[in-house]
Design goal:
five-stranded parallel β-sheet, single chain, 6 helices, globular, alpha/beta
Length: about 160
Amino acid sequence: MNVMLFPGSFDPFTRGHRDIARRASKLCDKLVIAVLENPSKQPTFTPEERVELIKLSLINEDLNNVEVMSWSGLLVDLYKQLGCCASVRGLRSETDFRYESEMALANRLLLPGYDVVLLPCRDDLSLISSSMVKEVGLYGGDISKMIPAEIIDIVKEKFSKGRTQ
């Protein structure tokens, strides 16, 4: 069975993330979307909330081969544990390409069999990032074109609480 890993912080899950998940799920028997805990970041959503947001974002998709989980530890350890053939990453720009290439090389130093598939995002989603969603959302701006409709109310509620604290 070909298992691919789609790792990220997904804070929150965007329409771009969903598009990459949808496309990557067609390239493998099983796609595991892994919410990674990154101690250097201050997330808006807990890992459990992010897993739930992803599941809700995919509820209307026909993606029977997708599993969502959280992971705290080295990416290569999860990759090895799941028996992955590759990780998948989305690319929005040349900057993403450079970063993802460097990360792939670093992971290959830790696990020689590590491989990655880089998928360019759709043009209409290329400017969307979780950071942009957070910045716009925390100031009360319209994020409806940036994140899946299935999670818009939950994300807006979280951001409105952030504005009042």
